[in-house]
Amino acid sequence: MAHAVTCVVVGAGERGTVYSQYAAIYPDRLRVEAVCEPRKVHRDRLVERHDVPKAFDDWRALVSMPKLADFAIISTQDQQHCEPAVALAKMGYHLLLEKPMATTPEDCRKIAAACDAAGVMLCVCHVLRYAPMNRRISELIQMGAIGDVISINHTEPVGYFHFAHSFVRGNWREEASSAPALLAKCCHDVDLIRHWMRPAVVSRVSSFGSLSHFTAANKPAAAADRCVDCSLSETCPYSAERIYMDKIRAGHKGWPVSVLAGSPDIESIGEAIASGPYGRCVYSCDNDVCDHQVVAFEFDGGGRTATLTMVAFTEKLCVRQTHIYGTLGQIDCTDDRTVTVFDFETRSRTTHDCEAESPPGGHWGHGGADFHLIDSFVKAIATKDPSLIATDASDALASHLLVFAAEEARLSKSVVNVGDLT
């Protein structure tokens, strides 16, 4: 690149921190010009890490001054995406927008329309599209390795302690203040299924799911309202003592303990679980999002089918299980490293190892997909080539609208006919 691309970070939580670390690894490619974050400890941490020249406690400060950078990373809480996205797009900022786009169909459409009207690039962080194993699966489908895709079975194993952390105690526990779990957790899984099924289009969708376990009705009689006061804390799989204190005692200071304290150590994490939301009993929280859900998709009026399962109660943490069934073979991927193809004609099995494509430096999630997403977006801005972005505005919008249709089906206990996803 002739010169570094520049960005502003709106929301310096976990996701904003992950994407902006690209600037530390490749300072000649990306430079952070400003950070907007209401929490001082998170704002100061990013300023120090990247020597950021400007810092604000409110993103609206950016609107009152000339454009500072080429693009904005918007990684605020889900319900706070629309307003900054629309305002900054109008100013000419390209947008790297954390998933989900927004929490209503109307706000998703507003964002897509604003980017289209301003002529700016929008990359919604459907990171799974960029994961090496998923890219390999896409290539295999496109080259006809398994013939015509007839059915897909895809599972998102959230992980038992991850679900307790994020969706029972954490920021995504309540639909009114965040989003349905399917939207918050699996909008990019729905996007993957749409992508792999092309050119077939969804015609109908149904869905079933509920909050089954993390309720007051399932609270053990001996359990206390806080883990620090509970006689079961040494054996409960969801104990905050076990989830957080065990990690910090082992020297782990990244996610999830980094969510509890700006500078996590034994003292700060101990204080957080003693008095904060992450120390509450999982059966005494104000959560209401589904802890398991199944979605069934019909494509082309019944010519193709797919299922998506999201479940909290798993050993593996977000390591997707994918099985794709074609007329000439089958693709299986059950880890974040290998893709296996079974050929019906030759009755042979071929394994593709994606580990060699692991990214450099940093702590990248989603099997390295976080790195590949920000890398592709920075290059798209530098070269003015939107084709490097895997999910443009219209594509991301269509996937989100399909999630909303699935939620409508679950809540109405009906099969929803899917129309034009725009």
Helix % is 25-40%
**Main β-sheet: number of strands, strand sense, barrel status?**
9 strands, mixed
Report the order of strands and helices: EHHEHEHEHEHEHEHHEHHHEEEEEEHHE
Q: Strand order of the main beta sheet, please?
A: 14-13-12-11-7-10-9-8-15
State the distance separating the first and last CA atoms.
Answer: 35 Å
Structure description:
The mean pLDDT is 95. The two termini are 35 Å apart. The protein contains 14 helices and 15 strands. The strands form two sheets. It has a nine-stranded mixed sheet with strand order 14-13-12-11-7-10-9-8-15. The protein has a six-stranded parallel sheet with strand order 3-2-1-4-5-6, sandwiched between helices. Helix content is 34%, strand content 20%.
Short description:
The chain has 422 residues and is α/β, with parallel strands linked by helices.
Structure characteristics:
about 425 residues; alpha/beta; nine-stranded mixed β-sheet; six-stranded parallel β-sheet; 14 helices; 15 strands; about 20% strand
